[in-house]
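Cross-posting from the chemistry board since nobody answered there.

I work mostly on the small-molecule side, so proteins are not my area. We synthesized nicotinamide-adenine-dinucleotide and want a rough idea of how it might sit in this target. Sequence and SMILES are below. Is it possible to get a predicted 3D structure of the two together?
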Amino acid sequence: MRCRAVSNKPSEKTVAVVGTGTMGTGIAIVAARGGAKTIVFDVDGSRAHAAIEQMGRFLRRSVELGRTTNEAGVETLRRTAATSSIQDLAEADLIIEAVFEDIQTKADLFKSLDEVIRPDAIIASNTSTLSITQLASASRHPNRVVGLHFCLPAQLMKLVEVTPGLLTDDSVVQRAEDICTALGQIPVRTKDTPGFILNRFVIPINNHAIRLVEKGVALPDDIDRAIRGALRFPMGPLQLVDLVGLDTQLRLCEAFYSVTHDPRHDCPPLLRQMVAAGHLGKKSGQGFYRYTSTGTFGA
Ligand SMILES: NC(=O)c1ccc[n+]([C@@H]2O[C@H](COP(=O)([O-])OP(=O)(O)OC[C@H]3O[C@@H](n4cnc5c(N)ncnc54)[C@H](O)[C@@H]3O)[C@@H](O)[C@H]2O)c1
């Protein structure tokens, strides 16, 4: 069911974002703000609608902070439509999936996409840890599958890791990179290797901080202050895990460790316990810190 009218200038690309959780909503902002007609789709239709509301809140805050104009914010929303029907992705030039970090979920999605997308559409995965070549093998069009790994929070961070699988056409990688650049992002190419560049650093650091809490070495705030102060990180690792979502960090560890068998990538028991207790970070109001507002978006 299409819920919002969208403008359709011929010069605009159509970008579809599948999965409107923490990352998908941010990626949708990047796409729509960059001028693309943007369709957001989630298996849970209410989440697709919630994403548009979150986008609106983010854009209004951006206007208040003087980072964009009211007109630009209104136009960005006008370019965006939420849908709960996968058929609505048929017109997309680029589909970016940001569903759960689970190989079967993504493989099933790729098979469903095969039935509806255009013959020249690019299929991109925002996976953090899974092999692009393996994901592509679930599609009838592995030559059109590419990794586009946006960083959290996608609406504020410029980096996109661009990763071809073994069978990806060079022209597809180039087109994907060009679209990212046109949307104002900074693409960086990586090989199809677990964790690409960024998560080779980030996952072990986050796990290390969680293990320090687990062992009672220091409190979360002291660990974060130490890392921010000494290493000049803008955010401490435990603040970051709360923003990423503890459930997502758990899925990332499971997917990453199953490939690398590196103990630094293995899920700390405390993380598992906190997820079981429903402490998912900022999205649930409780993680390593307590939150009064549960949104994961800031301008
Ligand atoms: N959270 C991060 O910090 C981060 C950073 C970079 C990349 N990623 C990657 O982005 C992806 C999404 O992570 P997230 O943190 O946004 O997850 P999330 O749990 O916040 O959101 C996932 C969304 O996908 C939807 N979904 C699940 N199956 C679906 C399907 N078959 N079709 C359509 N929608 C479906 C869910 O309803 C949910 O809204 C993962 O691959 C993750 O590794 C996450």
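Reply from a structural biologist on the board:
Welcome over. Reading the output above for you: The chain has two domains: 14-189, 199-276. Residues 1-11 have pLDDT under 50 and may be disordered. Happy to explain the token format if needed.
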